[in-house]
């Protein structure tokens, strides 16, 4: 599959082999006027996370086109990344923090910050 | 009979050589997998915009491990930064791309050891790079693709096992003006690129190609050409 996220808050999902749209209607990613800054697919390929300028991180099941979880935040989210085990999400936020978040509870369980630095990209190891 | 014996001897010797090669590869890979006991993350790692400082946060002790300098290009400060774990190894890849009127990019590989980042590979700064760039990694083949150079190289394919650039895929006509994003599929055998046409305000296209590690002439085929608003940010993921 190929996922194409548009700045206009749409996500098209194509079949890589046939190059046909899987979802006839594009998946709506964020609130109108707030763009999507990053998307990341879980390693098993089943779930997609988007980081938005509306301050939320949203988790989608692209197979049915549904949002299954919304993780609230205070400020723009620049980047989101799944952990290898698919249990956690790391986000880089404009509030100056990188958050460690549990996917199952949707709650931040840790964070990292440094004065005068803004996280731009994030990952786990 | 003697001839048959000799042939079987060579056959066994051949098997032995094969075993030695496999064992060497296994040992090399095993040495990179000190974090691979479990896929549960041990560190939260982030890079800052502009200066590309890297912070390491130990998730077990909930403490900061320190601040390290990520990839830089001649000390230039205004950059997009990308950071990526290399599968379940204890390595990360840091990349910086130009922001604004600058046109350089660079990347560096670090090993995580006892809460510190140890540089293990430093690429040389490249000029002629446009856009915020992208970084894609495939765990199965341990390849990363990164740093497109406008109208010259579509992406550099980096072997994260040998720490060598194994392909500089040539820019093709189908790549238009700017490669906006790219991604290796889950098999690591194909790459998709997202093309943004700067002067045709409402068009993007997606191309795909089979990865040929030692060849720079990888033929890309256009799959999709869509008319959309191309201002802003677009991301592509292939799975």
Helix/strand-derived category of chain A reads mainly beta
> Biggest sheet of chain B: strands, sense, closure?
5 strands, antiparallel
Structural class of chain B: mainly beta
In terms of quaternary structure, the protein is heterodimer
Looking across the biggest beta sheet of chain A, what order are the strands in?
4-5-6-7
The CATH architecture of the largest domain in chain B is: Beta Barrel
Question: What number is the mean pLDDT of chain B?
Answer: 78
**Which H/E pattern describes the elements of chain A?**
EEEEEEEEEEEE
In the CATH hierarchy, the architecture of the domain at 36-113 in chain A is: Beta Barrel
> Would you list the SSEs of chain B in sequence order as H and E?
HEEEEEEEEEEEEEEEEE
Low-confidence stretches of chain B: 1-14, 27-37
Using the coordinates shown, work out and report the CATH topology of the domain at 36-113 in chain A. Thrombin, subunit H
Please explain how this structure is put together.
The complex is a heterodimer of chains A (125) and B (239). With 125 residues, chain A is mainly beta. Chain A has a domain at 36-113: Beta Barrel (Thrombin, subunit H), CATH 2.40.10. Chain A has no helices and twelve strands. Chain A has a four-stranded antiparallel β-sheet with strand order 4-5-6-7, with no helix packed on it. A four-stranded antiparallel β-sheet of chain A has the order 8-9-10-11, with no helix packed on it. In chain A, β5 (47-52) and β6 (57-61) form a beta hairpin. Chain A is globular. The mean pLDDT of chain A is 86. Mean pLDDT of chain B is 78; it is low at 1-14 and 27-37. Chain B folds into two domains: 38-128, no CATH class; 134-239, Beta Barrel (Lipocalin), CATH 2.40.128. Chain B has 239 residues and is mostly beta strands. In chain B, a hairpin with a 4-residue loop joins β9 and β10. The interface between A and B is large, with 44 and 54 residues.
């Amino acid at each position: 599959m190929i996922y194409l996220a548009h700045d206009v808050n749409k996500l098209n999902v194509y079949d890589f082999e046939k190059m046909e749209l899987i979802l006839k209607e594009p998946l709506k990613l964020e609130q109108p006027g707030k763009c999507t800054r990053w998307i990341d697919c879980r390693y098993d390929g089943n779930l997609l996370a988007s980081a938005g300028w509306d301050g939320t991180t949203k988790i989608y099941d692209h197979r049915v086109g549904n949002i299954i979880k919304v993780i609230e935040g205070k400020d723009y989210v620049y980047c989101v990344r799944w952990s290898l085990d698919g249990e956690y999400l790391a986000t880089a936020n404009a509030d100056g923090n990188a958050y460690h978040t549990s996917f199952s509870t949707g709650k931040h369980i840790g964070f990292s910050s440094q004065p005068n630095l803004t996280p731009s990209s994030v990952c786990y190891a | 009979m003697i001839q048959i014996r000799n042939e079987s001897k060579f056959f066994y010797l051949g098997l032995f050589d094969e075993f030695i090669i496999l064992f060497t590869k296994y040992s090399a890979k095993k040495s990179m997998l000190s974090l691979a006991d479990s896929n549960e993350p041990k560190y939260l790692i982030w890079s800052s915009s502009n200066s590309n400082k890297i912070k390491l946060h130990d998730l077990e002790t909930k403490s900061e491990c320190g601040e390290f300098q990520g990839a830089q290009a001649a000390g230039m400060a205004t950059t997009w930064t990308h950071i990526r774990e290399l599968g379940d190894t204890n390595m990360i890849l840091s990349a910086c791309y130009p922001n604004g009127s600058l046109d350089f990019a660079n990347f560096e590989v670090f090993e995580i050891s006892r809460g510190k980042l140890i540089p293990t590979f430093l690429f040389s700064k490249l000029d002629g790079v446009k856009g915020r760039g992208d970084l894609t990694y495939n765990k199965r083949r341990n390849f990363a693709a990164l740093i497109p150079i406008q109208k010259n190289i579509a992406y550099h394919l980096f072997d994260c096992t040998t720490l060598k650039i194994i392909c500089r895929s040539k820019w093709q006509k189908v790549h238009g003006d700017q490669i906006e994003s790219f991604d290796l599929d889950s098999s690591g055998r194909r790459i998709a690129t997202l093309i943004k046409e700067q002067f045709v305000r409402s068009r993007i296209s997606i191309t795909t190609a089979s990865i040929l590690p030692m060849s720079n002439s990888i033929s890309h085929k256009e799959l999709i050409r869509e008319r959309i608003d191309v201002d802003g940010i677009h991301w592509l993921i292939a799975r």
